[in-house]
Amino acid sequence: MGILDFLCYAFIVVVFFQILYYLFFLGRFAFLKHQETDSQNIPVSVIICAKNEAENLKTFLPSILEQDYHNFEIVLINDASQDDSLNIMKAFASKHSNIKLVDVKNIEAFWGNKKYALTLGIKAATHNHLLFTDADCKPVSKHWITEMVSHFSTNKTIVLGYGAYAKIKNSFLNKLIRFETFITAIQYFSFAKLGMPYMGVGRNLAYTKTDFFKVRGFMNHMKIRSGDDDLFINEAANSRNTEICFSKNSFTTSNPETNYKSWIRQKRRHISTAKHYKQNHKVLLASIYVFNFLFWILAIILLAFQFNLQVVLSLFLLRIIAQYFALGFSSKKLDEKDLIFFFPILEFFLIILQLTIFINNLVSKPNHWK
């Protein structure tokens, strides 16, 4: 058997597993019907940790204060900011009685550690149910709190939401950023529905104080500067206590990076955190990436040599169709329909970029919380 024969057989296996991935794994979210939930009368503490975010606080905090929810407080954590963040927080607090301030000073043991600041904010929160977002995030509607909180129940004490990025016209980088965010979201939504929740994003995430203290907060990964959201969920979430929220009124949106250097720096931090996930999650995520990588490499080689062209093209198109089914339905749920036409191109560039970031992370350690 020649080398091209071997590669063709390998391509068949890869395509088979890719179709299973798109239609079975991602299909758990793609084909999931949205079910209306009853509004809850649960008091909520909205937690926002800010470090040098004066301008963003002035811009986005009003959208939190305007939420149409009967009983919520906002816990503003000033994480040793060097700018005017604390004064901005005090100005808002003087006008709104439901704002609580937590001013965090750097100490030697936890210098510049966001998890330390968040821990103080969580302890200061009045209510057991906590809803997290970032200082540069804006809820897309006045019903954000209502929608996220409606998924809490006696058993469901962790709620994973969607944190989108704003659309910028005629920007390939913006599409790439949003595609990566979109893929990550439908993946953690799908795995949560399969009973294997492995991450969430701090831009839109909810859980209880009880869950936080049950796993000793961030103590098991306090020395890892990043991962206050995904590492916590990786440790605390399970098939019984986790629910997802993807109604369009529950989304938050924030401004994306506008240059490749800044975004790649951000992604380096995120990817470096994933190595601390549970072993079974790391194996699954690594397998997904390897099969994506092999699909494109094998397809390019076989098509370049025009080997068994009819079979290879048929398999290539079959996999692309499966991708469009899963991602197409998901894009409608998450309001990312403008990405549909670019799916294969964006996926190819993202795979190359992720490989580059992985190699860079092996060579040098990325920076963390600013």
Give the helix/strand layout.
Layout: H1 3-25, H2 27-30, E1 44-50, H3 54-65, E2 72-79, H4 85-95, E3 99-104, H5 114-124, E4 129-134, E5 137-139, H6 144-149, E6 158-160, E7 163-165, H7 172-193, E8 205-208, H8 209-214, H9 230-236, E9 242-244, E10 252-254, H10 260-274, H11 279-304, H12 309-333, H13 343-363
Parallel strand pairs: 1-2, 1-4, 2-3, 6-9, 7-10
Antiparallel strand pairs: 4-8, 5-10, 6-8
Keywords: Glycosyltransferase, Membrane, Transferase, Transmembrane, Transmembrane helix
Protein name: Glycosyltransferase
Domain Glycosyltransferase 2-like: 45-183
Describe, in short, the structure shown:
The protein has 370 residues and is of the alpha/beta class. It is built from 13 helices and 10 strands.
Indicate the proportion of strand residues.
5-15%
Number of helices: 13
Distance between the termini: 55 Å
Q: Please summarize the sheet with the most strands.
A: 7 strands, mixed
Strand segment tally: 10
Total number of domains: 2
Tell me the CATH architecture of the largest domain: Alpha-Beta Complex
Specify the helix fraction band.
Answer: 40-55%
Computed over alpha carbons, the radius of gyration is 22 Å
The CATH class name of the largest domain reads: Alpha Beta
Low-confidence regions? none
The CATH topology assignment of the largest domain is Spore Coat Polysaccharide Biosynthesis Protein SpsA, Chain A
Pfam families: Glycos_transf_2
Enzyme class: transferase
Protein name: Glycosyltransferase
EC number: 2.4.-.-
